[in-house]
Amino acid sequence: MTPAPAGAAFFDVDETLIAIQSMPRFLRHHFAASGRPSSAFADAVAELRALAARGVPRAEVSQAYYRHFAGSDVKEVAEQGRDWFASELVGDRLFLPGTLRAFREHADSGRPTVLVSGSLPPCLHPLAELLGATAVICAEPEEAEGRYTGGLVRAMIGPDKADAVLRFTRERGIRRADCHAYGDHGSDLPMLRAVGHPVVVGDDPTLRDAPDAAGWPRLPGVAAG
């Protein structure tokens, strides 16, 4: 019987592993590729920002985001994702260097590397293929007859990420105490607390001020401004 690896490494993606927010940037690409006017994207962003400003929970804002894909062909959106990702690679500024270095060190050591994100599969699968990630655990848009319905089966935000860590480690016989996790936002706290080696990326106030986060290692995040 092959022994379980000494821990796994779990990575949030947006502004943790990559320096951008993939969801709004891909939505712009999707609207343009689908022939929708730029004003449609501006209206969508304004709607989502208004929901967030009212204090609507992130999971509900995420559900509102995925409604903009209602009726879209799943295979076409996947192709759009590959095109979008290729465009984001231009200029060699997509990744946060410190987190990318950590990802590669974990991969080279033989640890499973797992992307855990509320972003959508068409954004994340090209990234996982480029990096050679072991697994992608992400939001799951609802599908019917080859098209997105606009519904969301799974958001993968907050406690969802901790649950994902628990499932992955349990299924593979990995001790959570041996695992690493990387996150940049207060919503990543459940995932960070679920492992023995949490790492904060950037300077989010919630992570900065959490009592148990005081001694956690930190990596540089997206520069302010």
Automatic annotation (TrEMBL):
Which residues are listed as membrane-spanning? none
Q: Domain of life of the organism in this record?
A: Bacteria
Q: Name one GO molecular function term.
A: hydrolase activity
Pfam families from the entry?
Answer: HAD
InterPro entries for the chain? HAD-like_SerB, HAD-like_sf, HAD_hydro_SerB1, HAD_sf
Which keywords are on file for this protein?
Answer: Hydrolase, Magnesium, Metal-binding
Q: Which family does it belong to?
A: Belongs to the HAD-like hydrolase superfamily. SerB family.
State the PANTHER family in the record.
Answer: PHOSPHATASE RV3661-RELATED (PTHR43344:SF13), PHOSPHOSERINE PHOSPHATASE (PTHR43344)
Protein name in the entry:
HAD family hydrolase
Q: What is the taxonomic lineage of the source species?
A: Bacteria, Bacillati, Actinomycetota, Actinomycetes, Kitasatosporales
